[in-house]
Amino acid sequence: MCLLKRKRKQAVFKHSYRGIPTHACPCGSVLLKVNCIFENGEIALWFTEAECALCGAELTAPTPEDFEDAEI
Ligand SMILES: [Zn+2]
User: Fold this and answer.
1) Residue 16 forms part of a structural domain
2) Distance 34 CA to ligand 1 centre (A)
């Protein structure tokens, strides 16, 4: 009988602030990690599932439609 050893995964606690589009993380960082697609040297599409580049918290990246009713 072959026994497989499983590696224990370390529990990593990440804050999750998903659901509210934002330009910044509550930790103060404005640098977000997002997946995107480029076309002709410009960002053509980006996913709204974002992650803070500093603390790793889960965030929702903004889109232009999220702020079209907001007054500037
Ligand atoms: Zn953060």
Assistant:
1) no
2) 14
Beta carbons within 8 Å of 46's beta carbon, 6+ residues apart = 34, 35, 36, 37, 61
Q: Could you tell me the distance, in angstroms and rounded to a whole number, from the CA of residue 5 to the centre of ligand 1?
A: 35
**37 Cα: distance to centroid of ligand 1 (angstroms):** 24
The answer to whether position 66 is within a domain reads yes
Contacts of 11 (CB under 8 A, 6+ apart): none
How do residues 13-71 score in pLDDT, each as one tens digit?
A: 889 999 999 999 999 999 999 999 999 999 999 999 999 999 999 999 999 998 887 76
Number of independent structural domains in the chain:
1
- pTM of this prediction? 0.73
Distance 21 CA to ligand 1 centre (A): 14
**Domain that includes residue 44, residue range:** 35-72
